[in-house]
Amino acid sequence: MKHDFSDLRLDRVTRRFAGAGGHAFAALNELTLTVKRGEFICLLGPSGCGKSTALNCIAGLMQLSGGSIWLDEQRIDTLPPEKRGFGMVFQNYALFPHMTVAKNIGFGLRMRGVRAAEIAPRVAHALKLVQLTGQEHKLPGQLSGGQQQRVAIARAIVIEPPLVLMDEPLSNLDAKLRIETRAEIRRIHKELDRATIYVTHDQDEALSLADRIVVMKDGVVQQIAPPHQVYAQPANLHVARFMGYRNVLELDVVREEGDRVELKGSDIVLTGVRMQPLNGARAALAIRPDEIVVGEGPGGLNTVSARVENVEYGGRDSLLDVVTQSGMLLHVRGPVTTALGDTVRVHVPIERALVYPLD
Amino acid sequence: MTTRTDASPRAKFDPALLLVVPAAAFMLLVFVYPFLNGLVDSFNPKKGGWLANYSHFFSTDNLWPTIWTTLKLALPATLINVGFALPIAYKMRVKSRYQRWITTILVVPITLGTVLIAEGMLTYFGPKGWLAQFLQFFHLYEGSIRLTHNYWGVLISLVISGFPFAFLLILSYITGIDPVLARAASTLGADPKSQFRQIYLPLLAPGLAMCFCLAFVQAFSVFPSAVLLGSPAGPTRVISIAAYEAAFEQYDYSLASAIAMIMGFVQLIIVAAVLGLRNLFYRGPVSGGKG
């Protein structure tokens, strides 16, 4: 098992399962990705999108139905998990309940035949890294969820793996602990200078942790890009929806000029930026609630009159549901002074209104 | 003086507790009373002092060795049952196409009574039984086959009737262990052998001890097969036969009670020893964390 590597390559990695009626369906379809040393990759998608399947395939817990996995020049998808030497953090931690914290963390080292005299200091170092010094003689059942999670992380990284795999490691923690542990995971990743592949369905987590995000749906990769790009330039309508573009309006295409598209509904006319070639007379315009501005646009362009139908107080601002005369619903962030039944003018900035073909 | 209020830590009487009454009455009538009756009876011998039955048992040549005779049958039978059930149950822990069939076949003997098993074994394992005829027909073994009316007949029947019991118990313990633990161990470098030794075995140990105790108690009280398949006058004269003879051939209920008490005491010693060993192992929940 080597610790120095330059990249991990997934080449058309595919995993099929027997589905209903004997039809095989691909839980993971031709995932191709190169992970560089030092990179933090997030696999992001709703449940059932194949992200955990991908992780299990990389770890060796699942056989591939097609494709191959390479660590530099070595093909590893034919190796059993114990020969791959990747560290894995499981969603439910999977700590060994009959072993103390120290024994749990030292397990991987013992399996590698490391001498006892060498294990102790390395375990101590890992404990320090996850800030659990002093807890080494406790059993996992005596720790809180957050502490158990950190033991799981320490156990995975003490073997100094080239690659750390994390399967929704924060989903069992409460909101405050989740944000703290998130920062810690990022810090540990930087300190180890290896690679991390992290599975999550939480876009905030992916945005804050990743160097690159792999957005998946139904086993197929939708977009591979840095967080700011996935956030601001979703590759397709599915990614846009998943990244918080709550307003998706289906409208008629009036005309296209360069990458600008003018769209029209029964009582609104909006212009947006085309993200993908359009394929018909209708298209979808997607925009985030926080990017719609309450007020008049320049020259009254891209501005819509609507009535406030619902107000959700959010502290700094309120989330408003506004409805146009013809019944088109928009989610908008607006001032907390807005009241139910008010009529407002809202402006959709052209650069932030993304136009996609209908799916 | 304090006044009781609703907030007092002493809970009010819960009528649901009355549900215990039938079971408690049943225990009193069919277990506690007969046991105490037998215990008292064993100290009222037909003749001699209050310990006469016990001194008679331990000084009579066809009584006290029955303890060893029974142990010599029950301990190997239990070890075989638990020892074979463990690897098979371990293999059966994952769902496969054959799992249900194999489990069913292994468990069927539990539905057969010991007498039925004995009848079948006499036909199959007897000197002119199917097994002997088969081996001789194919010239696989020419010597005489003696697997009934001796020690081996009883041992085999104890395995046949006891194995499904041990298998089912161990299978339920094994399937209770979260398989993600073994997967976690494999990502940490544990090969299948180490996964079994380091993860499954320590977590199973308390269950195995429990299974050993139950299987042992069952085997130690062997009676029908020791009579039908063994040689009840010789090598399979087990302790229950001695008690039966005392009660129904010599009509000495007091001595029979004493033998039953000794039988129970021996079982208790073995069970206590095994459960004592069990305390050396981890006995908490066997999941890997929240989930």
Written overview of the protein:
The complex is a heterodimer of chains A (359) and B (291). Chain A is an alpha+beta fold. Chain A has 9 helices and 20 strands. In chain A, strands 6-7-8-3-9-10 form a 6-stranded mixed sheet, with helices on both faces. Chain A has a 5-stranded mixed beta barrel with strand order 11-12-13-20-14. The model of chain A has no long low-confidence stretch (mean pLDDT 91). In chain B, helix 9 (192-220) packs antiparallel against helix 12. Chain A binds chain B through residues 59-61, 80-82, 84-88, 90-98, 107-108, 111-112, 139-141, 145, 148, 152, 155-156, 159, 165, 172, and chain B through 178, 180-181, 183-191, 194, 198-199, 202-203, 281-282, 284-291.
The proportion of residues in beta strands of chain B is under 5%
H-E string of chain A? EEEHEEHEHHHEHEHEEHHEEEEEEEEEE
Class by alpha and beta content of chain B: mainly alpha
**Beta-strand share of residues of chain A:** 35-45%
| E-strand count of chain B | 0
Low-confidence stretches of chain A: none
Q: Give the rounded overall mean pLDDT of chain A.
A: 91
User: Helical proportion of chain A?
Assistant: 10-25%
Order of helices and strands of chain B: HHHHHHHHHHHH
- Tell me about the biggest sheet of chain B? none
Q: Multimeric state of these chains?
A: heterodimer
Mean pLDDT of chain B: 88
Total beta-strand segments of chain A:
20
The coarse silhouette of chain B is globular
State the largest interface.
A-B, 35 and 27 residues
Query: In angstroms, what separates the terminal alpha carbons of chain B?
Result: 49 Å
Total helices of chain B: the number is: 12
Decide which structural class fits the backbone of chain A.
alpha+beta
Radius of gyration of chain B: 24 Å
